[in-house]
Amino acid sequence: MVEVLKLYNFYSQRLRDCTKVMARLICGNRLAFLSEEHKLLLTEHFSQPQKTAQPRELAIKLGFEYAQVIAILAVLATDKLCRNYLLIYHYCAEACVDRQPLNEGMVTLPYTCPYCEETIDTYDDLQFDIMVETEVSIEFV
Ligand SMILES: [Zn+2]
Hints:
Arc Repressor Mutant, subunit A; 4-stranded antiparallel sheet; 4 helices; 8 strands; extended
C-alpha cells in the first residue's frame, strides 16, 4: 500500500512538472496600467493552454476598458504568444459564421456567407471582431 502511494506521488509530481510549461509575459512599460491584481487575473484567465479570448468578453470578465484589452492582446501577439483571428458575423447567425487569420487582412468582396450562402457585396452587411488563441499557459509578470 505504501509502495502504491509512493508511486502515485511520484507520477503526480511528474504530471505537475509537465504542466508547468508556462510562458512569461513581461508587461513592464508596455502595459503599465496593469496592477498586480490585474496581472493575477490575467494569469488566471490564461492559465490553461489553448485558451481563446475575445476582447469584449475579456473586458467584461476582468473589468477592463475595451482599449486596454486591445493593448493586452496586441502585446500577446507581438511576443508571439497567440494567434489572432478575424471573426466574421452575419445577421443570419448569432455566433460568428467564419474566421480567418488576422494577418490575411479583410475578407474579399463579394463574400458568400458559409452559413446562409447569401452573397454579400458590402462590408456594411457584416460585422467583425477579433479573437486570440493561445497555445501555452501565460503568466503575466
Ligand atoms: Zn449568413
